[in-house]
Amino acid sequence: MFGLSKNRSYAIGIDLGDDIVKIAQLGYYNGKGINLIASGIQNRPVDVIPGSSNWQRWAIKAICELTANGKFQGRTVIAAIPASEVFIDHIKMPKIENKATNVNKNTQNENSFTKYLKWKPDSYDKLQQAVFSKIKGKLPFEPDDAMIKYIPTEQDNVLVIATERKKIDRHLAIYEKADLQIKSIAVWPTALTNSYIQFFGRRKTDIEAVVMLLDIETNSTNAVICRHKNLLFARSISIGTKQLDNKEIAARLVLELTACKQLFASMYKKAQIERLIFLSSQTVNKDICTQIAKQMEMPAQIGDCLAAVEVEDPYGSGIDRRGCQVNWATAFGLSLS
User: Fold this and answer.
1) Contact present, 43 and 63 (Cβ < 8 Å)
2) 317 pLDDT band (50/70/90 cuts)?
3) 225 alpha-carbon distance from chain centroid
4) d(C-alpha 35, C-alpha 219), whole Å
5) Residue 195 lies in a domain
6) Confidence check: pLDDT of 331 > 50
7) What CATH number did the domain enclosing 229 receive?
8) Residue 135 has what pLDDT?
9) Are residues 185 and 257 in the same domain?
C-alpha cells in the first residue's frame, strides 16, 4: 500500500466557441470524488468577428492567459470543435455486399475524434464508403474537404459526424501556438454524455435508461439523447438564452425539440425517452426549463455540473459557484474524456 495513491488529474478541457472560451480541469483525490482543480473563462471582444484571423489570435491569447493559472496541472488538453462547425446526421446502417467488413463494436464507445478520416474512395472499407455516399449530398461544405466519423448506435442506426479539414487544422494551430499538447479533438455530444454519466447517471437504473440532455447556451441549444454511455442522437438548434425572452422564439425551440423527439421515436422504435436533464445549471431560468418540460410532456430535472464537483479553493480554482452564471457541462465533459 505504501507509495500508492488514488489521486488523478484529468486533462484540461477546452470549450472554445464562437463567443466564449471556457477551460476546466478536473481531478480525483483521496476518494473524495471529483474535484475542480482549475478553471477560467473569457468572452470574445465585440469587435472580433468569429472565425476570423483576429478571432484566432484572440483565442490563442485568451487560452494562454487562462492556462497561466498555476493551479492547472500539465499541458495536455482535450478540446472540442464548436457546434456551429460540426455537421451531424442520422442514417440507417447501409447495406454492403462484403459481409466481411464488420463494424468494430468498440467504436460506438469512442468519445473523441482521435482518428479523423479524409475521404479517399480507394483507401477505406466499403462501409465507410457507403456512409459517405449517404451524407455527402447533405454536407454544408465541399465533400472533398470532409473529415467524417461514423458511430453505430442501436437498431441499425448510425450517427455521422463531419467537419472540414481546414477548421480542424485551424483549431490544432491555436493549441500549438498556445504551447499546449492536444490529446484529442472531441465533439460536444460526447462531452455532454460524459458529464451526464459522471454526475447524474450513476445509479444502476441509469444504465439502461434513455435520457435527453439539453445544454442551452447563449445562442444555441444542444440536444443529446443517450442510453448511458451510448450516444444515440444529437442535434444543435440555433436558439439560446438570448432569444428565449421572445415567446414566439421560445415556442419554436419547443417545436424543434419535439421534432427531435419524434425523429428519435421513428428511428428507435424499441426505445423511449424517460426524462429530460437540463445541463445548463443556473444559466437558464428554472421557469423556462419547467415550461419546456411541460410543453414536451416529459419529466425533467436540473443537472448542475458545477454543484456536483468539489471546489476546495474557489479563488485558486478560478471560480466561485455562488450565483455562477456559467455553463460548465461541455468543458467538464471534455476534461473527463
Assistant:
1) no
2) low
3) 12
4) 29
5) no
6) yes
7) 3.30.420.40
8) 93
9) no
Q: Do 109 and 152 belong to one domain?
A: yes
Which cell goes with 40?
477560467
Q: Which DSSP helix (H) or strand (E) runs through 184?
A: strand 181-186
Q: Which residue has the cell 451531424?
A: 88
At 135, give phi and psi (nearest 5°).
-110, -10
Cell numbers that stand for 27 in this block: 481531478
Handedness of CA 140, 141, 143, 147 (dihedral sign): negative
Nearest to 13 by CA among 183, 178, 172: 183
Helix H, strand E, coil C: the string for 282-299 is HHCCHHHHHHHHHHCCCC
Considering the domain architecture, whether residues 244 and 105 belong to the same structural domain is answered as: no
C-alpha cell at 129: 464508403
Looking at the fold, whether 65 and 89 belong to one and the same domain comes out as no
**What CA–CA distance (Å, rounded) separates 73 from 11?**
8
C-alpha cell at 114: 482521435
Residue 285 shares a structural domain with residue 215: yes
pLDDT in tens, 27-79: 987 667 899 999 999 999 999 998 899 999 999 999 999 999 778 999 999 99
| Residue 76 belongs to some domain of the structure | yes
Locus of grid cell 459526424: 161
E-strand spans in 228-316?
A: 230-237, 275-278, 300-302
Q: Does residue 196 belong to any structural domain of this protein? A: no
With respect to residue 99, please indicate whether it lies within any of the assigned structural domains.
Answer: yes
Which residues are registered as beta bridge partners of 2?
Answer: none
Which structural domain range is residue 111 located in?
A: 85-164
In the predicted model, what is the mean pLDDT of residues 284-295? 91
pTM summary value:
0.88
Same structural domain, 43 and 177 = yes
Of 119, 134, 125, 121, which Cα lies nearest the Cα of 99? Answer: 125
* Residues 184 and 280 both lie in one domain: no
Specify the higher pLDDT residue, 315 or 195.
Answer: 195
Q: Does residue 170 share a domain with residue 78?
A: yes
3-state secondary structure of 161: strand
The span from the CA of 231 to the CA of 135, in Å, is: 19
Q: At 257, which amino acid appears?
A: L
Residues 303 and 235: their CA atoms lie apart, in Å, by: 19
